[in-house]
Design a protein that fits this description.
mainly alpha, 2 helices, about 95% helix, about 0% strand
């Protein structure tokens, strides 16, 4: 009987609602962070590709310079 009165009290209902809202907020935050992580991974991959292209270009220029000397 005491447990029922406690769980049915307005305070308990407000607490349960607040916890539910908090859980939803945390879930949304986690989803947003995962999206940002994916964007960062994609950016890093693009940067790595650009860096590799630049390395190849510099190597070709250095090779051409050595041939001219």
């Amino acid at each position: 009987e005491e447990t029922r009165r406690t769980s049915d009290s307005p305070d308990a209902k407000r607490t349960a609602a607040a916890i539910s809202q908090l859980a939803e907020g945390v879930q949304g935050l986690v989803g947003h962070m995962r999206e940002e992580q994916q964007q960062i991974r994609e950016w890093v991959e693009r940067q790595a590709a650009v860096q590799e292209d630049m390395r190849r270009l510099l190597r070709r220029l250095a090779d051409q310079r050595e041939k001219q000397l």
